[in-house]
Specification:
Largest sheet: 11 strands, mixed
Number of helices: 4
Distance between the termini: 10 Å
Structural class: alpha+beta
Order of helices and strands: EEHEEHEEEEEHEEH
Length: about 240
């Protein structure tokens, strides 16, 4: 875990936990239910607007702003990194393939084999639903590596190593394998009674855009996960 001197709690942004901040980047933990950024269809409060207000420190005329590097689905909790300059954003995006992204998820059923990589070409239809296609010309090749950490009460806990970062990739790959993520109303069975999506961006490792130093951030296990399956022994990220 990267150690950082953070501002007093009363000055921190409401609704986001700041894990690290310096002149060039801000790393936060996003709760489920919060959009990363606004869309044409949804202009509600987002992680992006919260952090823009935070870096402007109440001065609406301030030119300070944050730049979006990557996104998490609204329903997904976990680590997000934002840049404080366009140069930092460009560097992080250009080197995004070198970023290591690990997730924790709980799915229905017993997953076999216990370790594997799911690969398919992902595309999206007009209803904004992502699915696998056999036509390489229509989809983007996507790889999701998983390891089963625990099985309990009809659930499997998986650690995900995200090798590519397509929209809804983890949720689609696991659903198509027959093991939808708990709480997934879009790609699940349609009868899911859980109001929280059991998908958490647990750790992120990347190269700092200015210092060149490799940074690593990790978070704890969400309370919802332990309520579902009890204690989870997660390997060091």
């Amino acid at each position: 875990m990267q150690t950082t001197k953070l501002p007093p709690k009363k000055y921190q942004p409401k609704g986001l936990a700041v894990l690290h901040e310096d002149r060039d980047i801000i790393v936060v933990e996003k709760p489920c239910g919060l959009l990363t950024m606004g869309t044409e269809r949804d202009k509600s409060r987002t992680a992006h607007t919260i952090l823009n207000e935070y870096v402007r420190k109440g001065d609406s005329r301030s030119r300070n702003r944050v730049y979006i590097v990557h996104r998490l689905d609204r329903e997904t909790s976990g680590i997000l990194v934002f840049a404080k300059s366009e140069a930092a954003k460009n560097f992080l995006q250009e080197h995004w393939q070198e970023t290591e992204k690990r997730y924790l998820t709980i799915v229905y059923g017993s997953v076999a084999p216990k370790t594997a990589t799911i690969s398919s070409y992902l595309t999206e239809n007009s209803a904004f639903t992502v699915y696998s296609t056999s036509d390489p010309a229509r989809g983007k090749l996507s790889h999701t590596e998983y390891t089963v950490l625990k099985e309990a009460k009809g659930f499997s806990v998986l650690e995900i190593h995200l090798l590519t970062g397509r929209k809804h990739q983890i949720r689609v790959h696991l659903s198509e394998k027959g093991h939808p993520v708990v709480g997934d109303k879009k790609y699940g069975t349609g009868h899911d009674s859980y109001g929280t999506l059991a998908l958490h961006a647990r750790s992120l490792s990347f190269t700092h855009p200015v210092t060149g130093k490799r940074l690593h951030f990790t978070t704890g296990t969400p309370e919802f996960f332990t309520r579902l399956v009890g204690k989870i022994d997660v390997p060091a990220a």
